[in-house]
Request: fold
Amino acid sequence: MRALVTGGAGFVGSHIVEALVERGDTVTILDNLNPRVHSTDSPTFPGAVNFVRGDISSSMSLGRALEQLPDVVFHEAAVVGLGKGAVDAEHYADTNITGTIRLMDAISRLRIRPRVILASTMALYGEGAYVCEMCHIPRDGRRELEDLKKGIWEPRCDLCGSELQPTPVNETQPARPDSVYAITKLCQEQLSISIGKQYSIPVVALRYHNIYGPRMPRDTPYAGVASIFKSRLLAAAPPLVFEDGGQLRDFIHVKDIVQANLLAADGPEGDVAYEAFNVGTGTPHSILDFAKKLAEVLAPEITPELSGNFRLGDVRHVFASIAKIKRLGFTPKVSFDEGVAEFAREPIRNPPMVAS
Reply:
């Protein structure tokens, strides 16, 4: 199989590249080597990889990257992180939305129609799914600012005032993005599928949950809570956990993200085309549990600290129903304990800080 991986020098993309090379596929990488993410202009790749340094929004770069007429395109290139203000919004939209439109346009001009595997995100759901056990109906879990100021962390039913119970989110839950990043990723997903249908380009959207694992970046806008906690522990400082640490997330190891991508690439088109799939473990863990597990491995003498603070826009609970992707043969293989221990011991990418 011939494959193009956009963002193939990055965290998830590089793991996908490794897996493709290992099974004998022909791989092209398109990556702009953003210095906020990459510490070197000369990354090393496994095997005979064709590397194109360029931007997803550049027609010239896209032309070079698509020269080998790939059978599948893994679209990992994106600006990630919450994003703040109008300047960030424009940057996110340029890359995540306009860049994706230009990629789909370039693909539409090929004489073949490769399958596109889009890296989407659980962030587009906003808050997770909840049910009121008193009213016996699903409810909106959005929280009120006044409750947060009082340290009332759990969402409450707007009908009876009872504390809501979190449930897994499935792919039919309406999208309610509440950050610049999530809004652009929802647009990216919808535009890709719409353009794909118009030009008969099969598109599969994989909604990643909270990814962690080797080569996760540190000290960048792209770092997740896992890297932030690890960075503090490596500096002999306690991880600082917002609220009471009880926020539930679906932490999934990057190896299982790769597994999902390969299944989406190899599965029968009728099972995957123009569909969105959650990619998680289906088993939630609290953010405090993750911090404690990291500390056990890296610095047992350090105890994570609860700040009691909150951030507007943070969701309380969101974790995946993976019933749909299981139909493709997906089964998470890396356990929480095993994965966090490995992540703790692996070197962490530490690119130079670049002034914004």
Remarks:
- Residues 351-356 have pLDDT under 50 and may be disordered.
